[in-house]
Design goal:
The structure is a homodimer. By secondary structure, chain A is α+β, with helices and mostly antiparallel strands. Chain A is built from nine helices and five strands. In chain A, strands 1-2-4-3 form a four-stranded antiparallel sheet. Chains A and B meet through helix 1, helix 2, strand 1, helix 3 and helix 7 of A and helix 1, helix 2, strand 1, helix 3 and helix 7 of B. Strand 1 of chain A pairs parallel with strand 5 of chain B, so a sheet runs across the interface.
Chain lengths: 203, 203
């Protein structure tokens, strides 16, 4: 997928791209009846997986719910306010963390000594949570970068989703993200943001 | 900052932008002696803060360590393998979560009933961890989008960083991210990634 490294001056995105990713993008609250191609979903994952995780551990797992049967399994776990969004979304991604991600480390981080892998296993709960959540952030922006609107949802019954979609017990859901082409007529007014000085300082 | 919403066809980033964000970008392991402007750091924060968090809570806090005095306070908390990277980086960002983020919710999420704010306060530890970590993912990609190379580091003594930089005890560090213009001669070989089928499934 990768081209050669861009030169320094080529590494700043233009305003249009910054708008698509950050400034103009909005959290979708409803979707147009327009399908999302499987290739687009694959491209989102191929982009997301390139961004950094500790020890290149890549613990995020994704179930793309794209069928009526899949939605019928997911909807009972939703908070009532999220049902219409998922029903209108051509895709809802269940983002989860693989608690046994460390099994892949000898392949993903091949130069490290065994002690690193043992340590990852001992800290698998915390490490999978931190790194899969970082990857959830990458996932949302990768979806936007591929022309999709995203509707992340934390309001769902994780135990129900895990029992239904991850019955082996080795993955735990962290976030749902509806994906599609947003219906702008369903957008809420944009909420205010903190000022720079409320977020950041210099030392 | 925002321009008008791009039309649908304009919402897919071109391959160059996808390369800058994901496919060609690399985790920096050393930096060129080239400063980062304060305006660039401000632009990164202004972009990052627009991406979604639950209840628009925006719990991420950032301390940009840009001075020799700041680095001298940070370096004792680093794992030995990260010292050279931080010493060579014009900026190292300390990313932290504000445990009292809920104090801003009546302004940031003004239409919600008080019960939402009470619930956020009751779940402030988990909510600040999840949402600030999502924002850490946005931050890394926002840095890349503004032409910077990023070197995220989880290997540091969080208690030492918190005591030194967050003595009030209301913020807790989650990640360090060195920022600057990467010295490509210091890059490690790229590690392999999981295949799509190891990450994702359809339902």
């Amino acid at each position: 997928m990768a081209s050669s490294l861009p030169t320094r001056d080529e590494q700043v995105l233009d305003q249009r791209a910054l708008d698509v990713l950050f400034h103009s993008a909005r959290t979708a609250n409803g979707f147009l009846p327009q399908p999302v191609s499987e290739q687009t979903l694959r491209d989102v994952v191929e982009a997301m997986k390139m961004a950094p995780t500790a020890m290149n551990a890549l613990p995020l797992r994704v179930v793309f719910v794209t069928t009526d049967e899949g939605r019928a399994r997911l909807i009972p776990a939703l908070m009532p306010g999220n049902v219409a969004k998922v029903e209108s979304a051509p895709v809802t991604a269940i983002l989860a963390r693989d608690l046994e991600f460390y099994q892949h480390l000898p392949r993903l981080f091949p130069h490290a000594p065994q002690a690193y892998f043992d340590n990852a296993r001992a800290n698998a709960d915390e490490a999978s949570l931190q790194n899969a959540t970082l990857q959830a952030g990458y996932f949302i922006l990768a979806a936007r970068a591929h022309g999709l609107d995203a509707g992340p949802m934390g309001g769902f019954d994780r135990a129900k989703v895990d029992a239904e979609f991850f019955p082996k017990g080795t993955s735990k859901s962290i976030l749902l993200v509806s994906l599609g082409y947003g219906d702008d007529s369903k957008l809420y007014p944009r909420n205010p943001r903190l000022d720079f000085e409320e977020i950041a300082a210099f030392a």
